[in-house]
Write a structure and sequence with these properties.
- The two termini are 19 Å apart.
- β2 and β3 form a beta hairpin.
- The protein is α/β, with parallel strands linked by helices.
- The radius of gyration is 17 Å and the shape is globular.
- α2 runs parallel beside α3.
- The strands form four sheets. The chain has a six-stranded parallel β-sheet with strand order 1-14-9-6-4-5. Strands 10-7-8-11 form a four-stranded mixed β-sheet, covered by helices on one side.
Amino acid sequence: MDPANQELIELFIARAEEAAAKVRRLPDMAAALQYAVEVCMRKAPCELLADEDVEKGPDGPNRVPTRMQKILAAPDLDDKDFAALSAACAAQGIACCREGLRNHLAGIDVGLTTARLGVAASGTCLTAGDNEDARLAGMISEVHILILPVSRIYPDLPSIAGLMRDRMNERPGSYTVFITGPSRTADIERVNAIGVHGPLELHIVLLEDTHV
C-alpha cells in the first residue's frame, strides 16, 4: 500500500477512536459479516423502547423489558452477502432482516450499513441512505456497524466537495449523513450522554477488499 494512503488510514483510525468509535481493519466482506455476528452475540439484549409483540426478557438498566431474540439488520447487503449473514445469524439464534425495519421500531440490536466515504481529519463516515430501511438501521439500533473500504478514505472535507456536489445533483432530495462517533448530546445540564438520539456504539470496519 502507498505510504501516503497508509498515513491517511492511520489518521482516520486515530480521529475515529478519539470520537469514541471502535475501528477494526478486516480483509474482506466475509470477515466483516462474521464480525457483525460476533458483536451481536456479545452485546447485552436490546431494551424495548416501545411496546412490541415479542417474547420479553428481564428488565434492562432502564427498567424496561429486553427482547429475548436479538436482531441484526443489514439493509445494504446484496443477495449473496445477505444469505451468508443470515446463515451465520441463524446458527446463533439471531434474527436477520434487511427490510421492514418499521416493524422493529422498539429497538434493534445491531444495524449493519455501508459508508460512501470516510474523512480522515475527523474520523467521519458519510452515508447516503435513500432507502428508509438503511436509514433506520443506523438510527434505531443500539450498535451501528459501518463498513468502509480503505480506498474511500479522503483527507478532509474540502477534498470531498466535488463528490458532495455530484451526490446532490444525482439525487436532489437525497438523505446524506455525516457520522462521527456514536450518538451523543450534552443538552441536559451540559452532561455528556451517549445514545440519546441514536446508537450507543459505533463500529467502523475498514475493509482491505474494495469491492463493496
